[in-house]
Design a protein that fits this description.
single chain, mainly alpha, two-stranded antiparallel ribbon, 9 helices, about 75% helix, globular
């Protein structure tokens, strides 16, 4: 397994860092501009949903429920496009990333018109991204939240302290996701201070760029294989 991991191209780490950075931007804008509501994961939304259910605020309960459902629908859409959760070169990640970029643009448009539908599109975009690659050589990968990443880093640290061998490639991947999300959060906060909700346009642009870059990479590989035959 370690030999397989070492042979994987560097775009794996670059992609993970870029997607985590993108999620950090989206979630920070959501926290600052969506009435302090996170959208890159559903844990906080479900907790808020439970609290609002007790208070009897029907409209808020409905909205939070739709945010969670939107995340689920985004993940479902990812499954329909890529057909598998395991990382494999050649899958339609470019198409999925393009759809995510479109969802973020729609989120921005609705939010600029003061419509809460923007929250739903942003949540769907995060659900789609989080489901893009959920398995990397036996490691569970999440790019829109850090709970699992920090947990796995802690497990690896504990194993290392016991003198057991750890997988350096996986640790590097988790660290890149962590710092990518952190950098994205800083950029998101800085962007929100300057251009507010338009910061989501930056996230949409990053996602579109990744879609085009991945598509170009596949095209070059196909041409290379054809010439080698």
């Amino acid at each position: 397994m370690r030999n397989v991991i070492r042979k994987l191209p560097s775009w794996v780490e670059l992609g993970a860092f870029s997607l985590a950075l993108n999620a950090g931007i989206i979630n920070t804008v959501a926290l600052l501009g969506f009435t302090h509501q996170a959208v890159s994961h559903v844990t906080g939304s479900v907790s808020a949903l439970g609290a609002e259910a007790i208070s009897g605020n029907v409209s808020t309960v409905l909205h939070l429920s739709l945010v969670v459902v939107s995340f689920l629908l985004g993940a479902t859409l990812s499954g329909l496009i890529t057909q598998d959760a395991t990382l494999k070169l050649g899958r339609r990640y470019g198409v999925a990333l393009f759809v995510e970029s479109l969802l973020l643009v729609l989120a921005l448009i609705f939010l600029l018109h003061h419509s809460e539908l923007g929250h739903l599109f942003a949540s769907a975009a995060c659900g789609l991204q989080n489901a893009l690659v959920t398995t990397f050589s036996g490691a569970v990968v999440r790019t829109t939240h850090l709970t699992g990443v920090v947990t796995d880093l802690g497990i690896s640290l504990g194993q290392w302290l016991r003198g057991n061998q750890v997988d350096n490639r996986k640790i590097r991947l988790y660290l890149l996701i962590f710092f990518g999300f952190l950098c994205g959060s800083v950029l998101g906060a800085q962007g929100y201070q300057q251009i507010q909700l338009y910061t989501l346009g930056i996230a949409a642009g990053i996602t579109l760029f990744l879609a085009l870059l991945y598509s170009r990479y596949l095209h070059v590989l196909r041409l290379s294989h054809q010439k080698s035959k």
